[in-house]
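Take a look at the protein record below and flag anything odd:
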Amino acid sequence: MSSIDPPAAAEIRLLLIGPPKVGQSSIANVLAGRNVFPIAASSSSSKTATKSPRHYTNKTILSNKHLLIVDAPPLFVLKNSTSNEAEMKSLAECIAYISPGPHAIFLILSCDDKKNDLFDMEKIVTTVFGSEALKQSIVVFTNIDRLTEKNISVEDFINNQCKQQSLLDACDRRYLTIDSSTNDLTKHETFIKQALILLNNLWEKQTIFKSDMFNTIEKELQHIEQHRLQDLLKPDTSIVEQGAMKLAVREQLRDDIHSHRELADSTFFTLQTHLQTIFKSLVQEVARYFEENIASS
């Protein structure tokens, strides 16, 4: 990604959300411009497995800004959701990575609706992040090559056959499609160009998504950052150097959240009240779903 007019920030943060086995990590690699997210790790996981979120920062790809891509774990499987601590900790880690909030959210779904059967993207996003998050989101349909095999045009699929009309409307019809039959990053230039156009249009209206949950964790992270910066900043440190140091400290902090149990537990504790409310809502939605399906069967 290169030709773009991003928000006036030193770092651009993109969050990817999707059910298992729809090519989410492949999309992350396309956006990163290199294969940095292991694809086998997510594709081989079960539908209920908890996988740690993964992040990658490219320091040169986006107009000399840091491009942070967070590949969220497949813990948003609504109809199989449980309120266990492992899933909540994984979500806490993901939120800490993308704090103080994403500049854009990519909602990854397959053109094969069978792969989306266990997943209500709109309900999950609004439950976890709030309805305002959809105003900062772009829907990405993978496996578009399968439509070609069936002689179905993208327009026909989007307008007539896709079951995600409510989600598309909530995202102001922002969507992308990608051929998932190849992992050759050089063959995805059209996808990147279209993504840049949508991102530019999105950022004309709003540059970053924030919520009380992000505000809560950001206060905690900034407190830790200030403590670490005390040993680095000198009286004659320039504003440019200060900005670079803050980015470096935040990058290290993200790594430490994953590798240091004490810091990970602190992050979870900070967000615990928010997460308990979220998972309570998810469990209620699970019960409602099964009641409706039993009644209709």
Remarks:
- The first strand starts at residue 11 and ends at 17.
- The first helix runs from residue 24 to 32.
- The chain has one domain: 11-296.
